[in-house]
Specification:
two-stranded antiparallel ribbon; Elongation Factor Tu (Ef-tu), domain 3; 10 strands; alpha+beta; disordered N terminus; binds zinc ion; 2 helices
Length: about 170
Amino acid sequence: MNIRSIAINLIGDDIPLQKNYRKTSPGKRSADANSLLSFTSLNPGSFSAEGKGKGLEVGETVFVSLKGSKTLSLPLMIKSITYLIEPADHWQAELEGESFGSLNIYTWQVNCDSCQQPYPLEFVSRSDDDSSAQIFHAETRLTALGWLLDNGQHICPVCASKESRESQLH
Ligand SMILES: [Zn+2]
């Protein structure tokens, strides 16, 4: 089996590792700052990581930024984590995520069908995905960013919230 390491932003030695903060209170965020020191692909979908910080627990999801992308990250679930005594606040973890050979980052210029505002969308797709799979990933990403997709129309988050406010008035 062909195992390729995924492209991770390993610029310098301090990569912010974002936790899924939706589960925790906003005030906890700074106390839980973590950064990634090393990242290795063990098997497809299975990764070994070393980092520093605290507050991470088994079962939580962390986001690792993808190399070459400004906004995209890969969600990974913590399978096991060991905090080291020396150096303090360093940890080793086993992470689990989607299994893939290699990923490509695409940019797609989307125009809102309501206000015509252009938006440069970044999305990730497997290298072997066909165009319909790419569209699926692009639209999944748009929805995650708050866009409204309806009958081939793409409505930006600003217009989408206006529309929902107007429909509440009626
Ligand atoms: Zn719009």
